[in-house]
Amino acid sequence: MRYTGPKVRLSRRAGVPLTRKAVRYFEERPYPPGEHGRKTNRRQTGDYGLRLMEKQKLRWYYDVSERQMRRYWDMAVRGTGRSGAELVVLLESRLASLLLRAGFAPSIYAARQYVSHGHITVDGRKVDIPSYLVKPGQVIAVRQRSRGMQPFVAAAEGTYADDRIAPYLDVNHTDLRFTVVDRPLREQITVPVDEQLVVEFYSR
Fold first, then answer.
1. The model's pTM
2. Per residue in 87-140, pLDDT tens?
3. Contact criterion met (CB below 8 Å) for 178 and 140
């Protein structure tokens, strides 16, 4: 199942801010949530616990269920590259992930909602599946009828955009449209996870 509770709690459990909004809260309370959070020593976590937490961080960062994560892992193992890098690239290639990376949504949760509610098109056709894997050359856009909504007006003004747009995207914020120009490379993806520990978790 996907986590549907308070998102800042995930960041505190993970030990790193997983969303932009969580950065300020995490700086104020950088310890795990709960009654005994202040007393928790993350350094005492065993090898299994460390690997499990890296896997969970990756799940939470991309907002995927355990079942989906296992499916992506199976796909990554069948790929030609390093399994860990391939796993991150697959997660980054999801439609919801790319919406976030292009600056069309303030969080992965909002990006997922925009797709599910039918506001997004791929190559001119409405796609309402957040896990849709986008291929190089495909064009993603906000539907014409949705462009007057406040979140997309803000996106057109560049409100959610990072200082540096991902090199595998060609983004036009004003037109609320972007093209995936190439398949992401692991070194181009900023994600606070050591995927080698995820590999070790699934390979145990």
1. 0.83
2. 999 999 999 999 999 999 998 999 999 999 999 999 999 999 999 999 999 999
3. yes
Which residue would you say has higher pLDDT here, 85 or 23? 85
Contact 148, 156 (CB under 8 A): no
